[in-house]
Amino acid sequence: MSTISGETGQPPSAILLISCPDRKGLVASVTEFIATHNGNILYLDQHVDVEKQVFFMRIEWDLQGFTIPRASIGTLFEQIANRFAMQWSLHFSNTIPRLALFVSRLPHCLYDILSRYQTGEWPVEIPLIISNHPDLEAVARRFDIEYCFFPITQDNKHEQETRQLALLREHRIDLIVLARYMQILSGTFVSHYSHQIINIHHSFLPAFPGARPYHSAYARGVKIIGATSHYATAELDAGPIIEQDITRVSHKHTVEDMVRQGRDLEKLVLSRAIWYHIQHKVLVHENRTVVFA
Amino acid sequence: MSTISGETGQPPSAILLISCPDRKGLVASVTEFIATHNGNILYLDQHVDVEKQVFFMRIEWDLQGFTIPRASIGTLFEQIANRFAMQWSLHFSNTIPRLALFVSRLPHCLYDILSRYQTGEWPVEIPLIISNHPDLEAVARRFDIEYCFFPITQDNKHEQETRQLALLREHRIDLIVLARYMQILSGTFVSHYSHQIINIHHSFLPAFPGARPYHSAYARGVKIIGATSHYATAELDAGPIIEQDITRVSHKHTVEDMVRQGRDLEKLVLSRAIWYHIQHKVLVHENRTVVFA
Amino acid sequence: MSTISGETGQPPSAILLISCPDRKGLVASVTEFIATHNGNILYLDQHVDVEKQVFFMRIEWDLQGFTIPRASIGTLFEQIANRFAMQWSLHFSNTIPRLALFVSRLPHCLYDILSRYQTGEWPVEIPLIISNHPDLEAVARRFDIEYCFFPITQDNKHEQETRQLALLREHRIDLIVLARYMQILSGTFVSHYSHQIINIHHSFLPAFPGARPYHSAYARGVKIIGATSHYATAELDAGPIIEQDITRVSHKHTVEDMVRQGRDLEKLVLSRAIWYHIQHKVLVHENRTVVFA
Amino acid sequence: MSTISGETGQPPSAILLISCPDRKGLVASVTEFIATHNGNILYLDQHVDVEKQVFFMRIEWDLQGFTIPRASIGTLFEQIANRFAMQWSLHFSNTIPRLALFVSRLPHCLYDILSRYQTGEWPVEIPLIISNHPDLEAVARRFDIEYCFFPITQDNKHEQETRQLALLREHRIDLIVLARYMQILSGTFVSHYSHQIINIHHSFLPAFPGARPYHSAYARGVKIIGATSHYATAELDAGPIIEQDITRVSHKHTVEDMVRQGRDLEKLVLSRAIWYHIQHKVLVHENRTVVFA
């Protein structure tokens, strides 16, 4: 990861994401670690899954005046982590995540993401757009971003994914966004980016997984349609849900009307999921997410 | 049907519900029928299912000054109806529908409905509560309504349904409301009250049909839960949807929290569906509803 | 208005918008006019303001097989219109409206509108962007649209508006969209485009009119923020409301968070209002709108 | 306060609500206090108002195994509290709050609250209903609750409030709920129950304060109506907002329709505010609330 200073001008902060078996003294130990080294807590979110006895925490503190140098925080924290069998990750607010966008033919999510990128709404880098169709190259060019076209057939899929993975590594990609990418990624591909691939599905999962959900929603006569953003896993449309939202429909709505209204929903839901992820607000445990929104 | 004058004091109106194959001149013929006999249209809602070429209409007009006597409207309208192969029904705003409530052990929908009844929010009569459990008899007594307990086993189900049907006929029931009634009605029973039985299912159908939907929603990690009101059909949780609504949940919500929040949702969604039905705003076509809300 | 064929490939339809004092026989007369000339009604929406006794109607019919030539429809309809003292306008579905966008420094609504334009979501032409700041010229260039910078001071405001009006006429503009334009238009300017200027205000009007609504919302401690799209009138933020929507906030939200969430709301609400307008679904009566959504 | 064991059967927990100037080491000190005495944290919610540099915390821990006896927790915690200049309160999950309901003529909120009470949804006692009208006495009797009628005129208001206060004290009331009580409480009265009186206002405040908000909403032509629950303060409709929600309306809605839809909104919003309050999830600071929902 690069560590270019963020666009906000705010002093950088450190963010710890923690999950572990629930025990007494967890919060006290972590907060004491920060207080002892003169850190000021900015946000503390904590959750206990009472049923499974798992503890989750996101803690963010100001690095200004913190007496441990950035490079040593992890090493020193490891002692506490080991004591409690924590799974943890450490992030810094001024590290800029690098995103790759995967698209097919539908441009609405792509435009939405690029607009947010271009206007500086998100502190990210987007060096790369990958597609299985040539259609959206003009959009990429409009925003001066590299567009890589990988035509995919049953025969070349494995080979093309291998090339895509090489390209992603080369660009040091932290997060893959499937912005209405209409090609299923293999389990192998997904395994390289566990909880680092965000997909948008155009239904209120688990209703209407798979293809043509708006047609199915119409046929069932639902009064509300939805969109779901989730981490991609080997099983289609079954990964941990990050965000969902809905919009009302009525008998007046044709399938085309649902598709039109759904586009706005997909844009919103996907962009919120990306926002939570790049703010390091999402933890995953057994196919469910904890989102400290 | 009784024809007791409604509580509103407004002059009565007539309501025609129509569906038929779409043809030119439909609206003109119906509105001319009303205009010719000096009727003033209060509401006209019309919908064309373009895909299936079906026409739907709800038209309501003031009976004050209308030159056809109430009892002859149907006979005279039949000529137009036959010309266009219409399915139609005629209703009067001051006819009070008679409801039977079916309940099991959960009281929240029952209390909600009885409160609306008691405060005069709905122009209905509720002469009868039927249950497969004795638990809610005290609630019925609190509101001075007859409570009929029909314990149901695999062996006596057919017999008990026969007795229930007799009771419903005796009380001239127009609409059955399954207010969290946790017993599946037989296809035979349902066939006696086609599109006259409203059920509330505690999920956002078609997600999580069947038993324990909040548990399933929790396990899947959804960020939104819902409730669905639909006409009961022979197939469980598959009837035409009248109304749905949702509420947000997060990782903080246990199953019990979902159950608690869900109760408010169930009350709201069921009461809206009942409202639409008793206002004669719902038409059904091939398992989808047209709701002129 | 130009009459270039729309992008949908569907056969063109005609749309009548009508408002007049409520009388018996109104719907019958209009629908008979269409039926007599072999028109097939696609949509009919009708509303009676019972309190003010005003009748509103939007009726759309297929022009295929309609026996009156397009150019004569208005003339022939005028007889009915005069009989009922109707205010009316006639539109054709394949006429492409021409939009001018007014912007200042905030790019999010501009990007959103241009993306919808570029992807063909809206059947419109956008020949022109007008601004009181030079900041967003690069965005306009990215989408190959003319950007006209009119610096405005107290002294030159009248003169600049005169030049803007000339430019709008020259480009035959049908609809002006104030996409977060932070300069108040004069009453004179507004009077030239009555109900043809759509503004987006970043609050849930009538709460928090004027400047810095997110700051005021924060100070008041509201739990929900909103956005409002309305026709601009001489009085600031007081014109007829076309569309509103809201989003939840909590004590966690700083003013900056509200601004960030509000951007998505503003984009959505403005784009819906534009959509309703260009579909000829909005009628205005005494500062209230009828939106046949 | 009485300390009758709650209905849930769960072991009791302690809840600390804290607000104070933000300082380093706050969370560490509080959590260490609990950990040292063998307490297991169930929930920890913390918030820093960055602008005003105020720290808020709600911390709940299991009393099972906690080594400080219940009666001594406050005394021992005081040392930490003083060090950080904390405002704090200590609560126990199995203490049952005692509510008084104030009503006038509209029964819907009263029915809703009594139904929740009766079904055991809320762990509260409701010994008392107070009204300035005799109308709802029958409802109170239906639920076997004492109904005290205090007719109020300009002349007797002070005297009646004095008698009401005596009655509230006698019944050891912890929370007053104004369930559509249409009589303004004096500043003196309110001062006796600071942040212990919850009101429901039938608009989306700060829009439409005062009387007849639905009429004002209709006149302004808004597309969304709302309800607001807030703590009563000396200034009408200006107290700290606890909860708000909204529902869509359209040109089809008369004022009466808004009133009807609004009732459901009022019930929901008021009941959520009561729920947050009795769960000790609300902190107030300078007319804004922190709600750890």
Task: Tell the overall outline of chain A.
Answer: globular
- Number of continuous helical runs of chain A: 8
> Quick one: how many beta strands of chain A?
13
Helix-and-strand structural type of chain A = alpha/beta
Strand content of chain A: 25-35%
Q: Quick one: which chains have the greatest interface?
A: A-B, 33 and 33 residues
What is the radius of gyration of chain A computed over CA atoms, rounded to a whole number of angstroms? 21 Å
CATH topology of the largest domain in chain A: Rossmann fold
Helix proportion range of chain A: 25-40%
Largest sheet of chain A: 7 strands, mixed
Strand order of the largest sheet of chain A: 7-6-5-8-9-10-11
* N to C succession of SSEs of chain A: EHEEHEEHEHEHEHEHEEHEE
Whole-number total of structural domains of chain A: 2
What are the segments of chain A in which pLDDT stays under 50 over at least 5 consecutive residues? Answer: 1-8
CATH homologous group name of the largest domain in chain A: Formyl transferase, N-terminal domain
Q: Span from first to last CA of chain A?
A: 24 Å
Instruction: Quote the average pLDDT of chain A.
Output: 94
- Quaternary form: homotetramer
CATH architectural designation of the largest domain in chain A:
3-Layer(aba) Sandwich
Give the C-level CATH assignment of the largest domain in chain A.
Alpha Beta
